[in-house]
Amino acid sequence: SELQEWRPVIYRKCTDTLWLLVFCLFWAGLMFITGYAVMAGAAERLVLGYDSFGNICGRKNTPVKGAPLSGQDMTNKKYVFFLNPCSLEMQSLKISSLSLCVSSCPQEQLNSLEDLQSFARNNGSFLCLYNLDVSSYTLNPKAAQLCPTLPVPASKSFLLFNRCVPQNPECYSKYASVLISMVNEMDVFHRILSGILAGRDTVIGLSVLALAFSFILVLAFRFIRTLLVHTLIALVVFGLLFVSGVLWWLHYDYRNDPSTELETEKENVKFLLGYAIFSTVVTVVLLFLIFVLRKRLQFTVQLFRIVGKIIGRIPFLLFQPLWTFLILVMFWVFWVAVLLSLGTAGTAQSTSGGQVEYRALSGICYMAWYHFVGLIWTSEFILACQQMVIAGAVVTCYFNRNKNSPPPHPVLSSISVLFCYHLGTAVKGSFLITILRIPRIVLLYLHNILKQKKNAKCLLKYCFCWFCCQESCLRYFNQHAYTTTAINGTNFCTSAKDADSILARNSAKLTSISCFGDFLLFLGKVFVVCFTVFGGLMAFNYHRELQAWVVPLLLVGFFAYLMSHSFLSVFEVTADAMFLCFAIDMETNDGTAEKPYFVDQELLTFVSQSNKLTEGQKHRSTRPFQDNEDGTELQPM
Asked: Pfam family of this protein, just one (predicted)?
């Protein structure tokens, strides 16, 4: 069959327009969910707590129809106080006792109404209902019904949910038993939201730490040397061993802790065991690969020097991950804010006695799944745009005869081409990744449901691994499809077919070289994740009570990997685009005066030495060429 003609494209047309329209319609649905969550949700209720009259503690509230004590200004009243803390009962996931927002919890036991009155006047914390004036505590005949049950035990504020927890041993045991029952019966979705909100400062700090590690690695790879490679490998090995040891130690510590009663703490034990096993397996596999590939490190160093030379011609490529990261962070903040609002979406309805109950709205579960698909698809779309921008800039500079005078503004030119012509291609490629990720999430959900059926769990694990492998392969071909689109201006399917054809004919030459570079970059990502997760283990371990902190830790590890991938993908995409251009150059040109190569002599020598191409080049004149025209040159886009 006739070979694909690879020609420079100056006049382009829009590709995969229908997919761009579908993506816009999908985001219209996300905007509808966002508006719905903002109008119906109140994420602050998860952490700050609220009283029996619908007032969120620590905030200024709006009135609820039929509840005269609602709409109070609780800015200075940040703690939830139960009027009967020693006799709490659970009724339909709700605590039967009346609760109020107070400015401080009683530090000493209060035995009479006079003590309540004195405490209110001295501390400004009113423990009776809001409509009872402090001067009437001892005069109103109904004060016994409007004030807490006497004696009021001494209590302290509970930092996570801002509750006043009684310190009397008997009251504390009853209080804790009811609270444990309530938290255990909460669905996992709300417990995870509570953990994320409670550890939000730690999550933000760890994300900044991962950003710093990623930026340091980018600079290190830009000026890489052999000693630096050995140092990176040593740090990765140390980090993996240390994190694995800490995970096993924490699992042992949690499992043997007699106070582990809450469902969240039991979930922490299960997650820690899974993390420890996964980390140990990854450590063993990476140590084996490092041992096998230790003799090819020098070739990897040479590869990154060549890639660094290309990036040196386009220095603004190093800033591209920063913009991508900022966009991702803004989207993630938006996504988490909507998720928190969606998780607390409910209508405030007044009941008998002027109290308020929040009733969950129907259809929230389906909206949450739609919102989760939006997280995956949009994140992948942002990363795909970055890959296309880098690939377009590399292609422009590679197919340029004068290497000492690169085309002006290749990054800005590539960005303009992406937004004007090829956003649909990025949407389609990211959607294919998304439809492979969704079954993995469903399999994880089924795996948790079918805990007692071992045969079903084994089958689900096999399917999960299969989807992981398919996703890795698809990412590899997507990246080359984006590079092909940057060259030929074709749609996603045509570009993927052309890239697959050219790679199939040159796989023996380029696969082994590319693998070594990808492996070193993967070690860099492991380095960022390891040390970020270690910081998270140390930070979250100090807040064990009522927190599903292992799930936020998983979220931190996922974000750390995405950050490191976003930054280090500059080198990965540059290397892959360079090798694809090299393969095209070898097929299109023959090195003669009529059809000279575009490739640098340094890259040609490196590929020849790495794959022993010297003998194969003697027979290059016998291969058929696709045409007899002069070597083509890609102009600045």
From this structure: Choline_transpo
Write out the DSSP string of 334-367. HHHHHHHHHHT-EEEEE-TTS-EEEEEPTTHHHH
Name the 3-class secondary structure at 576: helix
Going from N- to C-terminal start, the domains of the chain cover: 17-33+186-347+365-612, 48-184
Q: At residue 479, what is the residue type? A: Q
| pLDDT recorded at residue 625 | 35
**Backbone conformation region of residue 66, classed left if phi is above 0, alpha if psi is from -120 to 50, else beta:** left
Beta bridge partners of 67: 64
Lowest mean pLDDT among 113-117, 266-270, 509-513, 602-606: 509-513
Distance between CA atoms of residues 76 and 57, nearest Å: 8
Beta bridge partners, 100, equal 81
pLDDT at 1 over 50: no
Inter-residue contact 315 to 212 (CB < 8 Å): no
Contact 47, 547 (CB under 8 A): no
Nearest of 382, 372, 385 to residue 442 by alpha carbon = 372
Identify any residues that bridge with 101 across adjacent strands, giving them in sequence order.
80
Distance CA 216, CA 220 (A): 6
Residue pLDDT, tens place only, 282-317: 888 878 877 777 666 666 777 777 777 788 788 888
Residue 22: CB atoms within 10 A of its CB come to 15
Cis peptide before 151 (omega within 30 of 0): yes
pLDDT tens digits along 608-633: 766 553 344 334 433 433 333 444 44
Relative orientation angle of helices 550-588 and 200-222, to the nearest 10 degrees: 30
3-state DSSP call for residue 205? Answer: helix
The whole-angstrom separation of Cα 192 and Cα 206 is 18
Residue 547 backbone dihedrals phi, psi, to 5 degrees? -110, 130
